[in-house]
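Methods: holo model generation. Sequences were used as deposited, without trimming of termini or removal of tags, and paired with ligand SMILES retrieved from the corresponding compound records. Each pair was processed once, and we did not select among multiple samples. The sequence and flavin-adenine dinucleotide SMILES for this entry were:
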Amino acid sequence: MDYLLTEEQQMLQELARQIAYERIKPIRAQLDEEEIFPRDILADLAQADLCGTIVPEEFGGLGLGCMENVLVLEALAEGCVGVATTYAASFLGAYPLLLYGSEDQKAKYLPPLAKGEVLGAFALTEPQAGSDAGAIATTAVKDGDFYVLNGTKQWITNAGEAEFNTIIALTDRAKGARGASAFVVEKSDPGISFGKKEKKMGIRASVTREIILEDCRIPKDRLISREGLGFIVTMKTLDNARPGAAALAVGLAQSALDEAANFAKERQQFGAPIFSFQAVQHLLANMATQIEAARALTYAVARHLDSKPKDYTKEGAMVKLFATDMAMQATIDAVQVMGGHGYMREYPVEKMMRDAKILQIYEGTNQIMRNVIGLALNKEYSKKK
Ligand SMILES: Cc1cc2nc3c(=O)[nH]c(=O)nc-3n(C[C@H](O)[C@H](O)[C@H](O)COP(=O)(O)OP(=O)(O)OC[C@H]3O[C@@H](n4cnc5c(N)ncnc54)[C@H](O)[C@@H]3O)c2cc1C
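and the model returned the structure below.
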């Protein structure tokens, strides 16, 4: 379908696709199997000037919007969602700074990120605080010109690889969620350490670790915005990131459809290509239709965000929910189309099905997305007569 992309958007998409097909696809099975962190590919992305798409030009980026970001993410996910997640999680770490950082903070952290010299990470989740983000227990206590952080963040993408981490911690425990604040903690700060690399079902090229903060002392100017705004920073960060998760789902599902359709042309049973069987065609038809619907919604929400609306929480949740549920089903169906071959590691759809699952879990589970949408609808309808 023609989504009326500008020439610049098409070029960006092509560039990311070229990296996905020429650099990522040939080695994605090895990255997955051996759990290799994709440093070389990140270097290629930096070389192609793709690490600063959403960073303003004054801080060394391309100054582009959510639409361009989703185009790049969709293309990278056609190659490998593990690699694309690594790239996306770096922006997740940068959003608190992009949205709420001081000029000095932006000037320090964004130019090296845009050049691809450093990675970011965003750390909210804790052992006792998953969906219930308000239950975080990490604290940040002011001590003169410093804050001292204590606590453990769990399952943080890019942890230990990222040079800077945006961390949500309580500056006022008595106030609960309203007492949370956001900080930048550097990998080299005293008192920060990282847990073991988690063994995961999918996205195994990406790195997931704990961040352990033990009397981690950071200068007070690492506070993002002001004390007590940590949850607003978190919610806006996630609202901005969710179209990106949807784009990963679209790219992944498209890639699964391509694999399944190409296989169906070649595989012969009962003296005919399996593509000629209507039951197989129906699986492919459902996939293609759902993918196009998810892509259209992803682009629509990205353009909506770029029009700078006041509130886009509901739309962010809707697109994440729809596209990631779609990708899960599409990858299951791709395996079904390919039968036993689809189940074998030799073929890429097995990895794709494993990779799809995380999209329904991270950046807020899809049950939580439904809660968010339900809450917004309740508010809207209670205002209507
Ligand atoms: C590979 C990976 C990478 C991650 N990367 C990051 C990262 O970079 N930064 C970060 O901060 N976090 C990260 N996370 C954490 C992720 O965001 C959480 O796993 C997610 O928010 C869900 O929390 P939980 O796993 O503790 O599940 P739980 O909150 O324990 O939920 C378990 C189940 O209960 C359901 N549930 C819980 N509460 C409700 C409710 N109120 N209504 C309906 N259903 C409910 C959930 O939907 C889920 O199905 C990552 C996780 C993984 C696995």
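The longest strand covers residues 146-157.
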